[in-house]
Amino acid sequence: MSFNIGLSGLRAATSDLNITGNNIANAGTIGFKQSRAEFADLYAASVQGTGKNTQGAGVQLANVSQSFNQGNINYTQNALDLAINGNGFFQTSNNGEISYTRAGYFGTDRDGYMVNNFGYRLQGYAVDGNGNLQNGVITDLRIQSASQAPQATTQLTQTFNLNSTNTIPTTTPFDPTDPTTYNSSTSTNIYDTQGNAHVLTQYFVKTGPNAWTMNVLVDGRNPADPSVTTPYSMAMGFTASGQLNTASLVSGDYDGAGATDFTVDPVNGRFTLNGWVPATADSSVPPVWSANGATAATGGIQVDLRASTQFASSFAVNAVSQDGYTTGQLAGLEIDDTGVIFARYTNGQSNVQGQIILASFANTQGLTPVGKSAWAQSFQSGEPVIGTPRAGTLGALQSGALEDSNVEVSEQLVNMIVAQRNYQASAKAIETESAITQTIINLR
């Protein structure tokens, strides 16, 4: 019996040394969680049960548990390196085989899928054709690296102030090349369906108290007929307090359809630039303008001037925005703390590419380690609870960072010394039993 007890002690100490050595070996492994050996004593069973003076039969390894406490966050400046600050696991798929990990080494493969350093695909919510997240539909996350298609301008919003102290220009008629024929001007880029930029210029001419005319040219040409420089014109009226309150069409019919090229809402200072023919100039002198093959946005460009004013201060454009843009190349990725992946393009635009999900378990100790810093679901762990970072008890996501191993090396070295002493003591017990047995054998 003493030999068996000593042997069980040797086996237990060996297991303890193996577990401690594994912890130390993985002190630098990203996302690793340290383990500990949990032992239990052994007693021989009998038909009638054990008595109060029963001697022990040794020790057994009852369990190897893992500590899932947080590791340190180490910043790497690589946008696709990810760390979880708090509860949760990344969910990855290897040809349909699901595993869970805290190791956030991620990049993209040749097909654009987000994968870890073993090629397992990171999972999350994808987006539809309109860029809307498909919450609840879990799939492999994929980064679209293709160029972003251009978008023709459909809306333009401006806020400007016209100087009420300006006088009516004495030089007439309006000539965009003669600054004495207008009081002020401003220019804004707009885009056609091919992503070509065009300059929309507005010239403001004071015509009387609280009354102005706005002349509109695109690339210095008439919007509907680039062969001429005759502008679209709109009359604007302001209240005594300087607020824009009326608008009316002056000129804008260049296709013979009856003032349909340039329509005006007379109530609140909005107009629609219809019939715009995007044009380009050739290299001749003087240049000849002609259609460039692209078109304007369907429905024209809605221009909103409702917030504009006429006060006794210098002309100024306070705000301007428009929704068109040219084509763009993928310039970089950003991932926020809720796991939403944003793609940035060289045209200044960005869009959502997907959202990373996290999984949590009722019993993390029940997860089955499968190597490669990953775990698999088991009966003891329960079903995964899926959510997005920062939702419920799930942790926040940190882009450009990795979670270090939670191994404390100094603690493990102490554990190794203790396991070594236990091994030596068990070996000594076997040696002593051997000596006693030899003494009995030597009796005559």
UniProtKB/TrEMBL annotation:
Ranges of residues in domain Flagellar basal body rod protein N-terminal: 4-33
SUPFAM superfamilies: Flagellar hook protein flgE
Family annotation (InterPro entries): Falgellar_hook_FlgE_sf (IPR037058), Flag_bb_rod_N (IPR001444), Flagellar_FlgE/F/G (IPR020013), Flg_bb/hook_C_dom (IPR010930), FlgE/F/G-like (IPR037925), FlgE_D2 (IPR011491), LlgE_F_G-like_D1 (IPR053967)
Major site of localization recorded for this protein: other
Domain Flagellar basal-body/hook protein C-terminal per the UniProt entry, residue ranges: 398-443
Domain of life: Bacteria
Flagellar hook protein FlgE D2 domain residues: 161-325
A Pfam family: Flg_bbr_C
Protein localization: Bacterial flagellum basal body
Alphabetized UniProt keyword annotations: Bacterial flagellum, Cell projection, Cilium, Flagellum
Ranges of residues in domain Flagellar hook protein FlgE/F/G-like D1: 83-135
Keyword Lyase: no
Record keyword Glycosyltransferase present: no
Family note: Belongs to the flagella basal body rod proteins family.
Entry function: A flexible structure which links the flagellar filament to the drive apparatus in the basal body.
Family annotation (NCBIfam families): FlgEFG_subfam, PRK05682.1-1
Protein name according to UniProt: Flagellar hook protein FlgE
Organism: Pseudomonas zhanjiangensis
Recorded name of the encoding gene: flgE
